[in-house]
Amino acid sequence: MTETASGPARGSRTKGAKASKGLRIERIHTNPGVHPYDEVEWERRDVVMTNWRDGSINFEQRGVEFPDFWSVNAVNIVTSKYFRGAVGTPQRETGLKQLIDRIVKTYRKAGEDNNYFASPADAEIFEHELAYALLHQVFSFNSPVWFNVGTPQPQQVSACFILAVDDSMESILDWYKEEGMIFKGGSGAGLNLSRIRSSKELLSSGGNASGPVSFMRGADASAGTIKSGGATRRAAKMVILDVDHPDIENFIETKVKEEEKIRALRDAGFDMDLGGDDITSVQYQNANNSVRVNDEFMKAVESGGKFGLRARMTGDVIEEVEAKSLFRKMAEAAWACADPGIQYDDTINAWHTCPESGRINGSNPCSEYMHLDNTSCNLASLNLMKFLKDDGLGNQSFESERFAKVVELVITAMDISICFADFPTQKIGENTRAFRQLGIGYANLGALLMATGHAYDSDGGRALAGAITSLMTGTSYKRSAELAAVVGPYDGYARNAEPHQRVMKQHADANAKAVHIDDLDSPVWAAATEAWQDVIRLGAKNGFRNAQASVIAPTGTIGLAMSCDTTGLEPDLALVKFKKLVGGGSMQIVNGTVPQALRRLGYQPEQIEAIVAHIAEHGNVVDAPGLKTEHYEVFDCAMGERSISAMGHVRMMAAIQPWISGALSKTVNLPESATVEDVEEVYFEAWKMGVKALAIYRDNCKVGQPLSAKTKEKEKEKEEVAAKAEETIREAVEKVVEYRPVRKRLPKGRPGITTSFTVGGAEGYMTANSYPDDGLGEVFLKMSKQGSTLAGMMDAFSIAVSVGLQYGVPLETYVSKFTNMRFEPAGMTDDPDVRMAQSIVDYIFRRLALDFLPFETRSALGIHSAEERQRHLDTGSYEPTFEADGLDADSLAQSAPVHAEPLKAVPAPAEPAAKAAPKTAHTSAELVEMQLGISADAPLCFSCGTKMQRAGSCYICEGCGSTSGCS
């Protein structure tokens, strides 16, 4: 709470005291005369992080000091990611105290230098409260703060950047340079390309323009180069194109075409793993693509009307298209490869606080930060589970007052950071200092809802999430108005005072109309209402210090550093977690949120114990003893037998969006069986509900996922196997010709398989008949029109092969001779097992090998089905596994060797059902895959080789904290 020069604020530390310039800081968690460090038990730990694929050590630092209540994973991630100084040198940080001091002392000094505090005593309270909140994982700054603040290097504090590009070669080249500098610093950037002339417009010289899609290639190549040269994380970027741009169809199709290329090249044997030798031939893979649609377009979709594509220079309509047809193409592309996402331009700009300074055209890579071009945003996220008060008997409440105080503390710190922050370009620095955009948010929403007995897709769950969000943003703007009274409003406020106050009223009006559901959300709504009343009153008097206050970010690495069960606003991944143990080893435990939820729902201890045991065994709540079926939905997760529907995700986004300044980083997950119509529904309903932006992801729609690189030893083994196979085949052929062949004809009735196929656009049919006692006996090929040369040659060829088979020539001999033979027609096929063929003959014998040769024989020849290739990607082996033969993961776990050590502490209520984790699982994501018998096509981590999981629009490695581009 604060007291400003304009008078004491409600709840200030010194009631009725004389007003003074500067903030009065109230204690929240700390005690006078006692430092937060002195109130916890500290211990030394060894951090040794290995790559699960080859056992190599990725990181090692021994004897680091952390509180005893920090999880192994959080210690590992903070030590490896955030400690500064070269490992093994005296300059290296060795404990959490040094890390937190580096940050909070920098913030305190900047606050004092810029007159934020009323007195040195207030500055000290600020420092201690900030240290306590970081120490106890109550909140976390975004990663650049941990990386850079208090170090000799540039103190970049922002994770999110928006750039701009104009229709000139100078501007385009500046785009490449500015983006590269941001990538070099480990952050991401986004921009809208719609100012660039389309390929359908003329240049001043008279020639046709290249169009924005062509310039995307250069930017993509630059991002890929910086990614591969800059350690372990990819460059995160977003490219956006307005729906009325004449090149919009080309933009929509870019990634679909490249995805087809990935399929073809991988199936042809090229190394298409992320970081592989051949992946660089694929374009547009380093960016998220989004189409910016407006209300005019969406209404035309709704009515079935036409929509005009406009010239960039004049604004004239140069082409009209069917709006529904264009919308359908967007949905088809997203269904096929998850791109493009969608952004709703009119909704975004209707909530814009600074329209007099320019429109909102772009977003950061994960779509949560949306503001003016050439600006940045620093983020911080609160751990919502830290504010749930639970007496252990089912009586719960959300601590609204303490939550609001922490929000005030964090917003103050975030605004102070802009005073000393460095920026990658001069324009971004000038604009960010002028508008001071902040992005406070939260993590662990999914865990909070489950722990309080709310289904993620329920009215009660949405009401609680909305109330917390409204309180957070209302309190943030209240503090922003109080800061404006002390250190002045942002530079652009005077010009934008009217629209800024209008948006504040929109937030407040939405809060007033919100529906209250139960005893948990009602007090939070009441606190939020009071906060918004203060916002309107203080904002009219003082203005605002910040043009933006809140976003919901992915919270990838920082979520793990806070030991959160769920990231951002995502639901829980699954009910069973993979827990690392001190000293090594791991255990599989049921989420601690499950017993909390059951207590809230009224279950008795013995019932809870039985239900938790059932979940530990089966991974879900279906048929759990004593659990009411109406309570199943409380335990629905992102994956599993009872997964949350696509529209459940959209409804949660819509419930939160009215009280977020920016947007929400969220990917709406759809099952593999989802249709294009399902994607259309998500995109259309999200617009109707007032969501600002979203992306969809259909399971297994992408084949070009990052994979672990093959070792040289495995390649050598493969070559040796192939050589031995060739030798075996040669010996078999030699033995055959030593004897006089005898023709074995097929009986009148013979089993057969007829296959239709397409190779490089040429269609055909193959009928393969076999002997009743097994073994291929004849092949008939039908190609092209009867009487054509190709049809005649195929007839003659099939007769020759059939006669050879009946005289005893082994099929593997034909396969070894005719596969890889090159001639036209060649190219893509419609066979999922043989996606690329170098000729018709190549396809025919690959298909015959798959249908008639045993696994060992064709494996030696390098011929595998799509299922076997996927199994190889997931397990490192093409061979069938026990799971594939019908045994579940639990059966395997009982017989497989394990590497786990017993817990040293007394287990929590959920942990009596803990059991040793299977040897092949190294994160919760991999554990879920084993339990469900599915393979999520998430990338493998560059650093440690484990399967990553989604965090908003990005991926996060639960093992080491690496991300696919978000901070």
Automatic annotation (TrEMBL):
It catalyses: a 2'-deoxyribonucleoside 5'-diphosphate + [thioredoxin]-disulfide + H2O = a ribonucleoside 5'-diphosphate + [thioredoxin]-dithiol. Residues 158-697 form the Ribonucleotide reductase large subunit C-terminal domain. Residues 707-735 form a coiled coil. One of its GO terms (biological process) is DNA biosynthetic process. Signal peptide: none annotated. Residues 750-850 form the TSCPD domain. SUPFAM superfamilies: PFL-like glycyl radical enzymes. Keywords: Cobalamin, Cobalt, Coiled coil, Disulfide bond, DNA synthesis, Nucleotide-binding, Oxidoreductase. Residues 47-137 form the Ribonucleotide reductase class II vitamin B12-dependent N-terminal domain. GO terms for molecular function: cobalamin binding; cobalt ion binding; nucleotide binding; ribonucleoside-diphosphate reductase activity, thioredoxin disulfide as acceptor. Its cofactor is adenosylcob(III)alamin. Its EC number is 1.17.4.1. Residues 1-22 are annotated as: Disordered. PANTHER family: RIBONUCLEOSIDE-DIPHOSPHATE REDUCTASE, VITAMIN B12-DEPENDENT RIBONUCLEOTIDE REDUCTASE. Catalyzes the reduction of ribonucleotides to deoxyribonucleotides. May function to provide a pool of deoxyribonucleotide precursors for DNA repair during oxygen limitation and/or for immediate growth after restoration of oxygen. NCBIfam families: NrdJ_Z, PRK06556.1. Belongs to the ribonucleoside diphosphate reductase class-2 family. This is Vitamin B12-dependent ribonucleotide reductase.
